[in-house]
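Hi everyone, sorry if this is the wrong subforum. Our group has a chain we'd like a structural model of before ordering constructs, and none of us has done structure prediction before. Sequence below.
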Amino acid sequence: MTDFFKDIQPVAYEGPDSPNPLAFRHYDPDEVVMGKRMEDHLRFAVAWWHSFAWEGGDPFGGPTFLRPWQGSDSMEAARLKAEAAFEMFDILGQPFFCFHDADIRPEGDSFAESLRNFEEITDLIGQKMESRRVRLLWGTANLFSHRRYMAGAATNPDPDVFAYAAATVKACMDVTHRLGGQNYVLWGGREGYETLLNTDMGRELDHMGRFLNMVVDYKHKIGFKGTILVEPKPQEPSKHQYDFDVATCIGFLRKYGLEEEVKLNLEQGHAILAGHSFEHEIALAVTEGMFGSIDMNRNDYQSGWDTDQFPNNMPEVALAYYHILRGGGFTTGGTNFDAKLRRQSLDAQDLIAAHVGAMDVCARGLKAAAAMIKDRGLESALRDRYDGWDTPRAQAMLNSDLQTIFDRILADGIEPHPRSGRQEMLENYVNRFV
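Answer:
Right subforum, don't worry. Here is the predicted structure as tokens:
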């Protein structure tokens, strides 16, 4: 036990009028929405890296948090960090958590030592899970922080780095499987390039495709029933990322024959960096049958980089869940808070309050999305806008050819009459629910 969260009681639902900053106002796990408990819809997860591993530094300053387990890269500190993590899970009551290998264990002097450290800490995590209901949403490997990965992991020009990364992923998949993880994520933080002057793009893409095929093969070899996920990530830190956005990832997966084996873990902050909205990335993944899970956060729109703040934008969150619900909701995926405190938010209460507020925002967004689906206003607007395509004549045209269409237009004297897209009215409609 630690005393980091001393005197902070488990968070309870107290309703929208509660003045308690450490109580849920909108997230009631047992509230039924569209025939399912809210907890089962949202499937919240806490991110180990931002909540416990991050020390509050930025490009111009060092750590500000000074947590009891920080400042020492030792197994003792890793064990203390794990104790604090499960104390926070008990307080929040969220059903899942997520981690990278480097979040939970210190780096050893060799791969073998790092592996021993990893297995010892995951044994402790497994013991903690035995007496609790919290489960592992997904595990992943950190293939970007260490200097060995400065030129990528699967796309590195050095085959020894490829091998080291492959061995690391194998170990992380084993642990994820052993802990009952429901997904395994590959996040290509360094899979890109700084300049084409020293890059063989075709070779790197082929290596990345082969690496991912090895991951899928190993999943089946060990009998892992979870979902393999890849996470789109644009332009940070590399100048060009191979996994830029949903469309890029789908094209990559189809090229290397992985479209039936791999789905996508989507992050709001990454969508913004790619020049998209979160709802766009979700809707595209749903449309293409590739949606898997989400990392829920937000960016500061003035900063221009991935600030990983906790969500608080209700319209954005509501529209994200609208497309998730319309796509059938989560299966193995969930809502992972890949979000971190501001470096001036020093206290344990800040960490709890950030998650409480984010969970409430997501709960409100879910209920707004469900209300819009029940009302069918957006669905009706779409049906009306595209109703011309439901006629036999329009459908026949799709199976026709340019000459036949040309002849018909010339003979019938057709002149299209544009119809309003009603964007402002639809934006006003959404605002009724949020």
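For your construct planning: The chain has a mean pLDDT of 96. The chain has two domains: 32-375, 380-433.
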